[in-house]
Amino acid sequence: MAPRTATSVAPQAVVVHDLGAQKSSGIVTPIHHKKHSHHANMTAKQARQAIVSAARDGYLRSVQQLLQKTGPSVLVLRGSTLLHVAAEDNQVSVALFMMQFISPNAVNADGNTPAHLAARRGHTQVLSMLLRDPFLDITKRDRSGYTFKQWLCVPLFDAVLKWDNVKIKDLLSVGADPDLDAGGVVGGALVRELQVTTARQLARALGRDQQIAPMFGKISAAKPPTSGDSGKVDPSATLEGRSATLRQLPMGSLRLQVAPSEAVAGGHDVYQTNDSSPGYVCVLNYGAFQDRPDLHLGGSEADAHNVASVFSKMGYTGHTHFSLTADQTRQELTRLRDMQEVRQAACLVFVISSHGTSRQQFLTSDMQLLHTQWVLDLFKDSQCPHLKDKPKVFLWDLCHGQYRENHIQSDAAPQHGRLDEPLRDVVCVHSSSGGFTNYTFTRDGTPFTKALCRTLAHHAHHKDFDELYRTFLAEYCKLAPGVVPTLTNIGFSKRFFFNPRPEANA
């Protein structure tokens, strides 16, 4: 019987015990694969147990048949998915099949992705397959703060100790770095006695000097490409993105005064605020584009200055970034997650302006398209735990229709329908619901940003986000008749107040 598609399987997640642990302890005898032929007579619980056992043992046909009864959302102990199970046990065919239904970025209760588990075990075949998925986020960290690449040091150290040339080459091919400091993940008496922290140092300590150069090379092994790199040459050397704090920018042309909050709203249904750090703002402004002067957005800098000016007066901290490349954008957002300012902030606000497409992508200065979903995914709870339960607001001012989408290099479109860690406490506002919305730029910037700044300056001190959005709509319709913005609520479950600080205008 053919397996169902991702849209036809049951979405409910159900938890079963870790049969692998039970099997090793002798508590339970796992269901043998020959019994998988009697799927029709199984109870739901038996089917869930059977599919975990089949995935662990690599019986693909049984997994395919049982999936129609259980759905793909079966979870084992600690919240691991069937893809985690297959990756940890090096079941390549099962893992490849389950990737149709489960994102490679799905995390368990320990923050481990399937790549983390495969890396720790040194399962290079499964890991190589996971790395080929264009949506794999190689920057994902577990709850200990380690990426899959750092966990690769564990099998790499073991292979160096045994000087298993084949295994070393396999590990290097999936991104193991012989020069990466592995002190956090690798221990043991031998390593402590030799006082080494990298695989290269270990090889030298073991007297493998003659083999090091041809095996490890003169520099670290090449990094696996990030999603969207596709082997392209990084053009950042010819483009100069620049950044500044909000307060370093000149005052915006709108010259708005911000009304301060007289009282801070509270309660179980309100996101908590922080008087010392009400929020952090990241402005990503793309106004110039490589070799395409026809796409220049003349009012974009005015927008950035107005946004920075208003949020500074509200007491918010943050940075504004102008005309970054795709790689610079990735690096900046990844760095932002660990910033102390972000850790202390009561909320996170993004204002992103550029050209956009109907496929929810935005254009960077090197003519690359990044997905809006990719940005959102960076701030899931497992990847940004210090922002857990805090509001995250994304304001997208994207101009549609000024260029032909098929002439722009792009990351592959995201695959929908695969199980993944959900987003929480996120709200998005897009300047348009799609179609052709080519703004007329003035020295004051776009209608979206002007309406946003005026709404925040005049009403953020006493209205919550829902009320502000309705006020913003009225202002926006005056400035851009016929353009319809959209609001998307993704687990934004409480009332949110920007709470401008009283001393902000001092």
UniProtKB/TrEMBL annotation:
Domain of life: Eukaryota
Homology family: Belongs to the peptidase C14A family.
Species this chain originates from: Scylla paramamosain
Domain Caspase family p10 per the UniProt entry, residue ranges: 425-470
Protein name: Uncharacterized protein
GO biological process, one term: proteolysis
A Pfam family per the record: Ank_2
The keyword Methyltransferase is assigned to this record: no
SMART domains assigned to the protein according to its UniProt record, in alphabetical order: ANK, CASc
InterPro entries, alphabetized: Ankyrin_rpt, Ankyrin_rpt-contain_sf, Caspase-like_dom_sf, Pept_C14, Pept_C14_caspase, Pept_C14_p10, Pept_C14_p20, Pept_C14A
Positions of ANK repeats: 110-132
PROSITE patterns the record matches: ANK_REP_REGION, ANK_REPEAT, CASPASE_P10, CASPASE_P20
GO molecular function, one term: cysteine-type endopeptidase activity
Keywords for this protein: ANK repeat, Apoptosis, Hydrolase, Protease
The Caspase family p20 domain, residue ranges: 299-403
